[in-house]
Amino acid sequence: MAISAPLLSFYSSLLPSSSSSFSTSLFPISKPHFYSPSSYSISNSPSSAIRASFSEMPSSPDSFNFRKPEIPSMSPFSLSMNESSNQPIKWRRVLLKVSGEALAGDHSQNIDPKITMAIAREVAAVTRLGIEVAIVVGGGNIFRGSSWAGCSGLDRSSADYIGMLATVMNAIFLQATMESIGIPTRVQTAFRMSEVAEPYIRRRAVRHLEKGRVVIFAAGTGNPFFTTDTAAALRCAEINAEVVLKATNVDGVFDDDPRRNPHARLLDTLTYQDVTSKDLSVMDMTAITLCQENNIPVVVFNLNKPGNIEKAIKGERVGTLIGATWNSTISRT
């Protein structure tokens, strides 16, 4: 690019007497300096380099028009500081266990889209508060290995593997529902199915949660003879979640079967020993023992009542709490 004669003459006046020091004198190396409006000094001297650098600047600092930086719009499911500061939160990282039967709804079909959408919306409501949510899904709505073992020569191990594949189907369906309303979701499976899901890697799962993504764990533990309840307790311990939220078709744990005894009483809290000694059908013994050994509380609540998932995740009094005590004053509804 050609330089005009007047401009060349001006820059020549800035050169020192020795041309060997041109690069260091004209462009000195110094620490970065951040100018404030009051630090601008525009000189009238022709030889001033500041005038050459800021000749387009306004003559008065008062004439600067500082525009407030534009903040990009936040995702509808990102952290809201106002909501997080006003809403008391009991747990910051939770594991939600959703049984396959619960996904079936009224059992008119294997998966009820209304149920999955209700789960997605309530999970979305709590992710705005900065709560990290992981989900373990069952597969009983499609195939339950323990029920089919022995049929037509099907051994228990093979039946359980088929049941694990059923949980993957539920997980992919639930992921699609969540992402349809803007919730970033990842599915991780206990055995490799690279075309449809990520393999389960604990550190990757934790990283997804830290980035605000919902992680769905499928295929149980990857081993036969273990239920998805045990998978929920195991994954909860591995990712350092603070509670297992078990979503069922009943309001919680009762002192008797509510279907046979209309006067059965809903229990507010239980100890791990109560569950094992009374043989309460809350979770299988392997799962409840794993929770006890790792001091993981369990909340059993009704999935079919609107708002229960959000209440449970926030730590409000809903259903039955096992292995801890309520410290919330919010009444049960």
Could you describe the 3D structure shown?
The chain is globular and about 100 Å long. The protein is of the alpha/beta class. It has a nine-stranded mixed beta sheet with strand order 4-3-5-2-1-6-8-9-7, sandwiched between helices. The chain has a domain at 90-322: 3-Layer(aba) Sandwich (Carbamate kinase), CATH 3.40.1160.10. The protein is built from 13 helices and nine strands.
Q: Could you list the spans in which at least 5 consecutive residues all have pLDDT below 50?
A: 18-59, 61-85, 328-333
CATH topology of the domain at 90-322: Carbamate kinase
Order of helices and strands: HHHHEHHEHHEEHEHEEHHEHE
Q: Which strand-content bin applies to the residues?
A: 5-15%
CATH class membership of the domain at 90-322? Alpha Beta
Strand order of the largest sheet: 4-3-5-2-1-6-8-9-7
List the total number of helices: 13
The helical percent reads 25-40%
Question: How big is the Rg?
Answer: 31 Å
For the record, give the distance between the C-alpha atoms at the N and C termini, rounded to a whole number: 77 Å
Largest sheet features: 9 strands, mixed
Mean pLDDT: 79
- The assigned structural class equals alpha/beta
Classified in CATH, the superfamily of the domain at 90-322 is Acetylglutamate kinase-like
What form results from the Cα inertia axes? globular
| Number of separate strands | 9
Task: Give the second-level CATH assignment, the architecture of the domain at 90-322.
Answer: 3-Layer(aba) Sandwich
EC number: 2.7.4.22
Pathway: Pyrimidine metabolism; CTP biosynthesis via de novo pathway; UDP from UMP (UMPK route): step 1/1
Pfam family, one: AA_kinase
InterPro entries: AceGlu_kinase-like_sf, Asp/Glu/Uridylate_kinase, Uridylate_kinase_bac
